[in-house]
Amino acid sequence: MTQPDLRVVLLVSTAHEGAAVLAEAGTQVTVLRPSATRESSKQLVDGALVVGVPLREPQVGDRHKAALIELKADIAHRRIGRVEQLLRRAWLKVLKFDRRLGASKEQELELTFGGLIDRLRPDVVYAQDAAMLAVATRAADRAKLQKRALGVVRYEAGTDQAKVAPTRSRTHERRLLIGPVNSAGQAWLWANALEHAVPGLAAEALSTTGARYAFAAHRTATDEQYKSDLRWQFDLTAYVLAQVSHVLFEAGRPLFGQRPGQLWTSDVPTLERAGIKHGVIFHGSEIRDPAKHRELFAHSPFQNADDDFTRRLQAANEALRRHLASYEGPVFVTTPDLLEFVDNGTWLPLTVDVDALATDLPVMEREVPVVLHAPSSGALKGSAYVDPVLTDLDARGLIEYQRVEGVRHAELAELVKNADIVVDQLMLGSYGVLACEAMAAGRVTVGHIADRVRALLPTELPIAEATPGDLGAVIERLVSEREASRKLADGGAAYVRELHDGRRAVEALLPFLGGR
Fold this sequence. Notes:
Rossmann fold
């Protein structure tokens, strides 16, 4: 008899039947079965997550791996004596150099499913037939060695052991999940703006990027969980298939966990089988083609094509674009310059909490103004040009230079509000979250915004233009012309309230979500 809150794994050799789900309300059920198509698949059936697992292709060394698993189990349980141990170890050395492919059917099942069960850490495994029962029994042996209880039950369809789990129904007709990055807290802010503007819509942000900057999110996970915790991955998959109607992938990353080289397209078949609409959001360097950027932008940080940083970005960008070429969902970009790099992209404006950033602190009234530079990536923001110029101005007593990096978002927001001038970036040709936050706080904001990007904007952008060659002169002018600087700061606050308080982001997303 299963109990609420138990984790149950059902091992089946044939196609899953809805009546075979062994669950009561609250029990988490994962069905593992061989894939009929040799491709992995996930679907929700009668409240259980059914996972089709491709059987291992025959490989040299399979016979050795399977024999080693069995030997370790027998030694651990003291089922064999010293003499037999020596004989089997000698046989293992022979198998290690055996070039024949494959293993027995039972060994193939062990190599395919054994590791999955270990990573899922279930409380009970129900096995449909003798071959699967052998896999489950060995998993129970390994669990016992780890001082963890794992029950094993032989299950046959149609017996009284089966209880059909209630089919899960969505608590909202429309529920959006944005993840798994929550870059600069944007997913959280978009979700909140949508819930505020669209009655009956639920929206959530998922962050798996760690707590370094402490951005708020509705769901969080560690990088380790995202990349290797199968239990977390399957729990999220089951939740999404049961409760979510729309998914927005961030930065080209998959939602249900990531193996090396995987991109968001690996999750698309699962979502489409479940009838879940999907799109992708690009934030910046993952989709900004370095080769094209240096052609279009005079101060591009990618001028040296042989630089190791540029080469790595170029390779990652090209790999992503190969997937994007065949992707049919909507594509959103968060800064206007990225429209140059994505065909048929939609601008999804960055969003900031304008009320939380608003301040009554005066600007440009101190004799020595405070100038803040807080790059998220010094290489991309042009910090190598910013630091020496502002350090020199500080030494001359014209400004007080504050340079920070890697601080929590709440701390950075206070630093922004207490500054007079915020220098964003000098090389990318557009503006990002920090510039929006600086403008929302009524600070004088400095950065390089290329003419081709300014032309894309619906209204004049109140950011003081500066490049690596004239940053010092620009700062000196802002310090000497105080009244003009304060007007620029006032214009920044109005600009952000018009474009970046969440309303424009909602309008951009509504067609994807089916309107209000």
